[in-house]
Amino acid sequence: MQRPGQGAPRGDRRSEERSESGMIDKVVHINRVTKVVKGGKNFSFSALVVVGDGQGRVGFGSGKAKEVPAAIKKGIEIAKKNMISISMSGTTIPHAATGHYGAGRVLLKPAADGTGVIAGGPVRAILESAGIQNILTKSLGTANPHNVVKATFEALKQLRNENEYKNLRGLNGEESEGGEA
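^ thats the sequence. predicted structure below, dont judge the formating
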């Protein structure tokens, strides 16, 4: 439990803010990149950012610039352009899904109300930005935030709710009885 007057818990280095458009912006990872050139070393920064509306739409982007705030701003703009819609079932996901990208694998499982977001690192940032409130996850394989984010998005793209399955199968809400021809 956090005492009054203390800052954020030590392990939580991600920043979150709501922009003027109502989007939730989360910085997942910031990397300092050094390029050795003839005159010395050039430093720049890359920022991995997740943006969501809290209503089932989420995107990610990677921005690069000479300063951190500029890299974050570029990442946010790229993330807004690459947003996807997620099928949700109340406050959780409709079914389990596994996403793969490179050496990264992410397992997502629906959870009962009151469970919360059981996830670590980049997966938590994505799910909270998307507005998912009850879910169980496990990140398998790599700890590289870029690959974990991409694997999470692959898993989220696989999600379909009951109505989408009915449309895919051509049922459109009609219940077909077995045995009638």
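The mean pLDDT is 86.
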